[in-house]
Recover the amino acids of this structure.
């Protein structure tokens, strides 16, 4: 898959924050397109005891979650772990994995934040700008914002607020399990992002896209040991 060059990668905190502030104005919030059938999931796994990381992209076909294609890329960690700057650490290998794809997905669900980010440019938004593909963030935990607890039943949700603005939705994907944090990445909005995440959740808390990518990168990491 062709991935056009968006920017060079900064090497320090100040440059990274400045780039986020400049890029966030390019994020487009609008409903996801109709007829989505091919959805990609992404994940990154780290070797214990060294700085090697393994990124994976898996493309599934809805509604049966058939794996159409999967690609990985391994490399040394390019950027330190700093809250709010995860994309500078994980996107370089994820983009290399995406470049290996023959299949262009209709949408991507990233294991991370979209708009629900202190500068409005989480990993999902940043990834969407690089790929030019509708992208949704589905995170396991909250990075920023406040919300009430959603109801216990599947599909119950609560608004995620940051400084008086709704940036995402806290969604119960299974009855009585912890919710996930859904926010638009790029070329998506909150309602359609929530619908896509729920559509990709079958028997588990996390979308099948995320689960497939997680299995893939852990297999690669285990084989590298």
């Amino acid at each position: 898959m062709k991935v056009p060059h968006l920017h060079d990668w900064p090497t320090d905190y100040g440059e990274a924050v400045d780039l986020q502030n400049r890029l966030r104005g390019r994020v487009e919030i609008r409903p996801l397109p109709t007829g989505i059938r091919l959805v990609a999931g992404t994940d990154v796994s780290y070797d214990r005891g060294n700085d090697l990381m393994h990124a994976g992209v898996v493309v599934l076909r809805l509604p049966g979650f058939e794996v159409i294609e999967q690609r990985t890329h391994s490399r040394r960690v390019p950027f330190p772990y700093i809250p709010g700057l995860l994309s500078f650490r994980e996107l370089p290998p994820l983009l290399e994995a995406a470049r290996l794809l023959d299949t262009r997905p209709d949408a991507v669900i990233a294991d991370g934040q979209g708009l629900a980010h202190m500068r409005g440019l989480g990993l999902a938004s940043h990834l969407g700008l690089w790929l030019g593909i509708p992208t949704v963030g589905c995170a396991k935990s909250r990075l920023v914002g406040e919300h009430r607890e959603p109801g216990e039943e599947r599909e119950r949700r609560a608004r995620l607020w940051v400084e008086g603005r709704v940036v995402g939705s806290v969604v119960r994907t299974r009855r009585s399990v912890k919710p996930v944090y859904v926010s638009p990445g790029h070329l998506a909005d909150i309602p359609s992002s929530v619908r896509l995440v729920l559509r990709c959740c079958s028997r588990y808390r996390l979308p099948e896209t995320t689960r497939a990518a997680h299995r893939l990168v852990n297999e690669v990491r285990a084989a590298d040991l």
About this structure: Residues 20 and 124 are 12 Å apart (CA to CA). The beta strands are 38-46, 52-61, 66-76, 107-110, 135-139, 157-162, 165-171, 180-186. The first strand starts at residue 38 and ends at 46. Residues 208-224 form the longest helix (17 residues).
